[in-house]
């Protein structure tokens, strides 16, 4: 970016050190020609800041040439977006979404010569439906959502569903591969958890996110399709959690008025109620991949593990066929009582848990880390939860197991057939289970109902629900499959040199 304001210049310091120094504003006569270059500087942690440096020029022609050349070079950078479609959820988090956008983001976009169409949503699913049916996507280089994980999820659903429809793919078919979306999504964090932003950028900071969008960064990510039988339910990119995180979410929905604190209140409540859920988790291990969930190194942009593990487009079909032919052999099943079943396709790092639910989960390797937390004492579960707030290993506990998987399915116990149920367990259960579903007779009837009328699975009394990126799924028995697809504007660039990244340019 070039402006006529003088704010700093490169000088030789007293000790010969060359560094940029602030200089006072001068009259036009002293420095008639100047241009300012704006650049991105790494600040604390993963935060990025915009900095300016002004160059003085005695010669007008030379100054003009510099400005033209810089502008030309910058407009030749094809990965940078020029036109963005922005959706703002005015009710996200502490309801600051619009203010954050107007004060922190819009000025940066306009400095970078990015034109925007801004839509403030009027109701839930406004952004999803607009993207899915009406938005003229050919007019944009990317979509930006201002809000929390729920808002990202809406935008992602709109784009992915539109792409599947345009490509003639049936998203209800559980084995249908997802077609790649043509547009990238940027996230401006303004929500309650903002885990997708934190886990990809390393910070929840609107300015940092805006700068990532401006310089056109790009990061693929894993998207999983969740089905109930042959019916498509949702896509997920971060957490699919049954039991504890499902219960926390459903309880927290009633406390939306509390803002982000609702999760802590519901978290304590659900921790104290200490409920476990029975069922069978079956999964297809990702046996042919580099890395494990117990690795120490977190995933970063350009991650070699992701590159190695992600099947090439042309290999996908072959891999799928191979998986299917080995399906019976490769699938494994775990039956039991679980406090939580969490499938995370990225670390799920967030301010509450800076390392995340699975610190070594990969952003774009086509797998998810399936974490099974079996029934244990309150104290043991608290130890497990507390380890999410430090660097201690939350998996190094007897009642916790973690598997890296390509697919999984879950059948809650009340949906299993009688022959699958163990009579012994039924009798024990009769003594201790919740009042609502007393006795095996009721359970048998419930099981039958579930088979004949799947809608009854919606809120059975002995079941939890799935937390799917912060939205509640209407069914408990699901099948899940992973594909790597979406392109985000927001990568983790922690490996890059600390100082100068890129310039923004326009002349004044
Ligand atoms: C004792 C302290 C334990 C702290 C454990 C913290 C683990 C936090 C892991 C959070 C993973 C978050 C995954 C992301 C989910 C989001 O997609 C989703 C939607 O986000 P949005 O509102 O921005 O749209 N957010 C959520 O589902 C919220 C999950 C928040 C869970 C907070 C749980 C707090 C637990 C507190 C237990 C306290 C026990 C105290 C005992 C005396
Ligand atoms: N204008 C709106 N009015 C009501 N709900 C909305 C609106 N726009 C989006 N939503 C919905 O609000 C929910 C929460 O949004 P999100 O941005 O994730 O905020 P938070 O992080 O506070 O949960 C999402 O399910 C989204 O679909
Ligand atoms: Ca992954």
In words, what does this structure look like?
Strands 9, 10, 11, 12, 13, 14, 15, 16, 17 and 18 form a ten-stranded antiparallel β-sheet that branches. This protein has helices at 60-75, 97-111, 126-134, 149-166, 195-201, 206-214, 244-253, 262-273, 304-309, 313-325, 327-330, 378-386, 423-432, 439-452; strands at residues 8-12, 18-22, 33-42, 48-57, 83-88, 115-120, 142-147, 184-189, 219-228, 231-236, 239-243, 277-285, 332-344, 368-374, 400-412, 466-468, 471-472, 478-488, 500-504. The relative contact order is 0.15. The protein is globular, with a radius of gyration of 26 Å. By secondary structure, the protein is of the alpha+beta class. It contains 14 helices and 19 strands. Among the domains are: 8-79 and 499-504, no CATH class; 223-420 and 465-484, Sandwich (Tumour Suppressor Smad4). It starts with 7 loop residues before the first strand and ends with a strand. Helix 2 (97-111) packs parallel to helix 6 (206-214), helix 3 runs parallel beside helix 4 and helix 7 (244-253) crosses helix 8 (262-273). Bound molecules: ligand 1PX, adenosine-5'-diphosphate (ADP) and calcium ion. The ligand CCCCCCCCCCCCC/C=C/[C@@H](O)[C@H](COP(=O)(O)O)NC(=O)CCCCCCCCCCCCCCC binds next to helix 4, helix 7, helix 8 and helix 12.
